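Lab meeting, action items carried over

1. Structure of the two-component assembly. Owner: GW. Status: complete.
Input record:
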Amino acid sequence: MAKSGGSKKSGSKSSGGTSTSRSAKTGTFVGRTKDGVSIVGPKRRSRHFTKKEAREALAVAHG
Amino acid sequence: MNPTDVFINCPFSDDYREHFRALVFTVVRSGFTPRCARERDDAGEVRYDKICRIIKECAFGIHDISKTELDPVSNLPRFNMPFELGLFLGATKFGARSFKQKATLVLDRQPFRYQSFISDIAGQDIHAHNGAIATLICETATWLRDHRPGAPVPGGLAIAAEFEQFSLALPAACAAKHIHPDELTFLDYWTLASEWIVATVGA
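Predicted assembly:
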C-alpha cells in the first residue's frame, strides 16, 4: 500500500494490465511526522484557508 | 480505487460534529486520505452520484450507524448512514473484482444494538464507541493500523491526545480568520488538521 496520498493517475494501468478506476488524486502531501507517517491534505483549496493561511492561523493559535 | 482513500459515512448533524472531526483527524494522522459527501459543494452533481463515485474510489469505508434517534423537526429517523453502508457493501459484493478488497469498519454505540435495527448485517464485527470520542478514535485507529501492516502508525490513545490538543488550538486559529469553528467546512478542517499535525509532530 502506498505511503502517501498514493493513488494511481487516472486511467493508468496496474502491473497486471487491469484498468484502474478513473479517479483524480484527492490528497496532496503535506509532510511527514516524526513517527514516519505521511500526512496528506486536501488537493483542492478549502473555503476559508489556503495552506499558507492555515499555517499562519495555527502559528497565532500557538502564540 | 485509491489505496489510501477512506470513505467516512456518518451523521453531519451538529451533535455529531466533534465525532466526525475526530474521525477525519484519525484518518489523516494514520496516513490515509479522508473522503466524504461534503468534500465537494457542487450543485451540478447529484448527491447519489457523488456518493457512488466516492465509494468507487475508496479502498476503505468507515460507517457510523449510531445515530438512530428521530429527527427533532420531522420526527422521523435518518436513513442515510445505513443506506450508504449498504451501497458500500454492495460495491464489494457486486462491483469490479478489485472492489472485493474494500474493507469496512462499522461503528455503533453498543456492540449488539445494531441487531435490533439492521439485522441483515448480523454476524459482522461491529465496533462500539459508546458515544465517547476517545473510544471512537481508538477503535478507528486500531482498525486503520491493522490495514497498514508494518507502517509506523501511532496508537489510538496517542492520536486521541493529539486530537484534544488540536481541538484546543482550533478556536484561536479560526479567530485569526474571523470565523467561528462551527463554520469550518470539511476541507477547512482537513487543511488545518494536516498542517497542525505536520507542524506539531512533524519530522
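2. GW to write a short summary for the group page. Key points so far: The two ends of chain A are 38 Å apart (CA to CA). Chain A has one helix and two strands.
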